[in-house]
Design a protein that fits this description.
The complex is a heterodimer of chains A (849) and B (83). In chain A, strand 3 and strand 4 form a beta hairpin. By secondary structure, chain A is an alpha/beta fold. In chain A, the strands form 5 sheets. In chain A, strands 8-7-9-10-11 form a 5-stranded parallel sheet, sandwiched between helices. In chain A, strands 1-2 form a two-stranded antiparallel ribbon. The termini of chain A are far apart. Chain A is globular, with a radius of gyration of 31 Å. Chain B contains 4 helices and no strands. In chain B, helix 1 crosses helix 2. Chain B is 57% helix and 0% strand. Chain B is globular. Chain B is mainly α and 83 residues long. The two termini of chain B are 12 Å apart. Chains A and B meet through strand 1, helix 7, helix 9, helix 14 and helix 15 of A and helix 2 of B.
Amino acid sequence: MKAEAKVQIGLRSTVRRPPDGSINLKRYLLIVGQLALLTLLLRQFQIESAAFLRLALLAFAGFAIHAVLPLRYRLPFFLALSLASIVLVMNLGNALWIIGIGLVLIGICHLPVAFVWRTAFLGGAAVALVALRAKWVDGPMSDAIWPILGSMFMFRLIVYLYDLRHDSSPASPVRTLSYFFMLPNACFPLFPVVDSKAFRRNYFDDDAFAIYQVGIEWMLRGVLHLLLYRYIYYHLTLAPSEVTGPESLVQYLVANFLLYLRVSGLFHLIVGMMHLFGFRLSETHHKYLLASSFSDFWRRINIYWKDFMQKVFYYPAVFRLKSLGMAWSLVIATLWVFLLTWALHAYQWFWLRGTLLFVPQDVLFWAILGVLVVINGLIELRFGRKRRLAGRTESWRAVTIRALKTYATFWFICILWSFWTAESLTDWTSLWTALGGKYTAGALVIPGIVLAVVVLGSIEHTAVRNTKASNQSVENRWMSAAGTVAAMVLLIAVSRETVNLQFGPEFATTVTSLRSGRLSRLDNAKLERGYYENLLSVDRFNSQLWEVYSKKPANWLDVQGAGLKRFTGDFAQTELIPNFVANTNFGVVSINRWGMRDQDYEQVPPPGSIRIAVLGASSVMGWGVGDGETFEALLEGQFNDERTAASPARFEILNCGVPGYQPLQQLVAADKALRFRPNALFYIATGREVTRASDYLAEVVRKEVRIPYEPLAAIVARAGLTKDMDEATALKHLGPYRGELLAWTYGRIVETVRASGAVPVFVFLPQVRGGSWQEETPETLTIARAAGFTVIDLSDIYEGQDIETIRLAEWDDHPNAKGHRLVADRLFAAITTHAVIPLIASRHETGVR
Amino acid sequence: MPDSIESAVKTFILNEFLPGEDPAELTMQTPLITGAILDSIATMKLVLFLEETWGIRLEAHEASPDNLDTIALIAGLVHSKQA
């Protein structure tokens, strides 16, 4: 620790006691009290995950001890807490792997051989880890360790090695281990690239109370960023196909960019927590929405990344090129940095997800941003850049010019960001057809809000950043603490239903939605598409889904790769392969001779039996459970167990579910099922029926699959769909026909079922997930009823249940065996009390087919 | 002559990067790099100034807050290079 005995302020000199990490009781209690409030806040809004709350509790309790320990024991204590946090979050086995591999890597850095050899050995270790991460060779460790191990070492090792090369006074072992295993990292695959020298340099270099208070304020700021992120993520994000006019285009652009609030929120939380242990690290982000140029944006957003690139790559390049002159060295070094930023982004993706990242938007984004920063840099080199030392009044002209530049930069960044995060270039170009849509006053709302924020932000222009908090007046520091406490109390109060309901049901509903972290409707749709169509586009950090997928084992339910389905060439495109049998992690999957995941039935029902055919997708087929564990099989067993003398008929329930089947494919499935002469046909819908119907019609048009249903072909013609249309445009064209499409589909199924003498029953069975992302459910049920289905609505089936215990995994919200049991029980109860059975029985008795 | 180094660096920074600002606000401890006064371009200009004025040579790894974050640190670096 570097002590500062004498501080000069302007021309004055004051003698100040060097910071020694001490804190008086009153201030200590104030910090502990605020941490208690912060814990409550994290809990009330379920910030991040249950694991993070546990980690925060460990950190806050650890702080209470750490702050009163003698200074020399604090760093070892921090290291112990950090290691404990890895065990707490990752479990002991995974933690031992992370720590063990980490120790090997750190050990290589300190081998008593020449630096070049150490680098070579590290390269060798990296190759071995790459082979394990990419699954070229099987390792004994769990896949769960890679994202965290990667986030701890992938960049920090580079910085550490760089400093080791140039620093004659390397850090102590405890400090080095603390640097790599630092406390909050176990919960965060995305972690700021903390500089190893800053980690050392700023350790308790200011008054301890001031450092702790800043930490709490930054954590609160992080929570605010995350809450704003949630509001945008849940309520404002749009799919490209939903962008139909200027108003939705503006919403799309701004919401898409503001999703970055999640990163800035997490980084504030992380660095704020580090402050509690004396690490006075600098800001990771500085008002990046108020950047007034591209260079300014680069300097304000993810500052640690900029500093890392500057230190390890930019300065070495510039110093080497100094002889070319400032302008040329700046141009070449900046472009070099952006090229490497792109490459390191792909490198980061590899460690977090285990796959390669190469998408054209990524290359173009960094190339465009690099060129813009170079141009800005040359302008600054030529004309300079306005900097300020202290807050003093600026002329209105200066404020206006900066506000205009900031406003223009914001919109340009929004556009560039939309390009970067677009799933494809065609998706992005199709966005701009929305400019030809209807111009309404609503299109001015978001630009107006942004303008107001920019103008207000431009008036209060920050001077010098990252000054020591102890340089502020005592009054300012107490005011700041009071403001923090007030903000936390207010947020906690608002989170309470008794309070938020006072502001009306709409406000209460919004607050409730912010109180839990989950996937948005768009990401849930992507998740579903992932296992329905294998069309998952989580190939960058453009969706929160990548975090969920980073935990998914590479061989998760690999039965699909073993050939569960085959192509048919008809409108349904695929079907289950008859007589297929596979052993999976979840049990045996057997397909009978008819292509059903079921026992072998005769095509003609036995005399006196009641037969029900069940249509659906993966949840019906039993994705992730063994034969006999599907709710269909359990339900059949329950009916037959309940047979009585009065009702002796044997039940046969035919599982006609096919993974990935969309509503339109059920037209084909219904025709097939009716060949088995059921007394009833159960159509199981799991959500997003309206959207999935139009998705499928767009898909068959694109793939030029023949449409054998004239009304569907007519909708295609009226919508003007062509095979060359990109998906987003096709879906926009189908927008006005979505309801009609599903209504015709349901109507046609009901009609054919009734024509065969069977009873059409519609069961709504949601996917197993928390929250209420069933925005299409009321419309779907209305359409089903209007079509003539007898409707059984199980949309509340998972309410009050612990979701984690009844779904397969965080990345797969199909029911597990326990979930299927729950569904079978509810369905049995619903069917027996719903007058469905008497209806079926009456058809059965009268021999109607 | 430590004072002359400090005052020359201060004058250079004020003239080059902070024209019109109150010199009294720029202290020996004002954070220049972490305080976002010296960005990468300004840092390179400062490095060239130090090299030309005092005939020293700086390495890339020395262009860091450890050496250049305050006028006091800059003066210390120049001293150590001259020693």
